[in-house]
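Table S7 (text form). Paired inputs.
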Amino acid sequence: SRMTTTSTALASMVVAYLAGAVASALAPSARVARYVAAAGAAVGSLGGLTLAAAVLATGQEVQLAFPDLLTVAGGIALRLDLLGAFFLLLISIVGFPAALYGVPYTRAYDGRYSLGVVGLTFNLFLLGMSIVPCASNVLTFLLGWELMWVASYFLVMTESDRVSALNLNCRCEVRAGMRRLATGSNRLASASTASSCTGTGGR
């Protein structure tokens, strides 16, 4: 029962962020976009907060896997342990008030920027940040990290008139870092597989 509750909280977090993103993009007006974006982000943050608190309180990990998604790369796998729960708690604690504050804050964007895009990228940004501490394999971690980076970039670019040329340097550095991380992860995975095969052969 406890495992079902935490798994439901994890699924609710992901679904709420995705629903907030899609609903914002399809909203018929800026006012509707503001409120549906805030609702999705707030519910997603509450789901993350509930999940993190449950794991920290019980010490019991929660797992959720989708092996049929991108099977060739190992599938999508989420697992939240105590360390991940601590970081998810911080993300959710900040995400909830940010969602509420976003409603009056983005009112000034009416007629200047697309609030549907702002709501879309804000929810995807929170989703990406929440996936990173829950990632159970390299593929899931990279997807969460890339989602977080792309969404944050477009959030910053919303006010493109205030963005400096440092954005290009930031993009290059982040991409280079991700390439190094992916290369290192692949090498570790290859070394682990080789070690496992050697150990099996020895027996």
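Next pair, protein 2 of 2.
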Amino acid sequence: RVAFYYYHSLDRKSEESMHAGKPVFGDSAIYYNKDVIDLYDTNKGIGSHPEEVAYDYANLANISMNKNSPDYNKVIRYIQKARAMANPLDTAMIINANMLEGFSYYEQGNIDKAEPILVNQLEILSKWSLEEDLMMYVSLYDILMKIALKNDDHKKVLEYEQKKYEYRTKIHDKEKYQTVQDLRVKYEVDKKEQEILALQERN
């Protein structure tokens, strides 16, 4: 698992550099993650908990989906494995699995399967009042808006577009607030440093 997380972190850092022709480490992360799963299967679960291996399958799905040419059938198989082994009360796993599965079906063009999964995802997020990951909402409403457009459901297109705009505004406001806070902290630090320098000069 240590090797997997190492290469997975390198892969995440290199995502922005992919277009610059720099190497990515997703294949190495997949290799070591599969090693962990094979070890679990060989030892028939001795020394590992199924809930932990569920996250290994979820990680495989996530990395596989971010490859240049994803095999979405494989991604969905990994998700189904993860869901079967996960703790049924693990909300984080449910949310991640739904996102990956819904997006995979959408990318395959199977909007009949994608839509109910993504709508269910919104219901789960609403039920648990999970608003920390605002970009997740933007992504969900964006895909649902595109699905509604393909279904010629213009009422839903408008509804989802408005919700997407609402969450984009929240992200913008949050970033703006953080910028103001950062400037305020910098001002306070600079002010303290000036006071210390003034005291040192007097002494």
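The first helix runs from residue 2 to 14.
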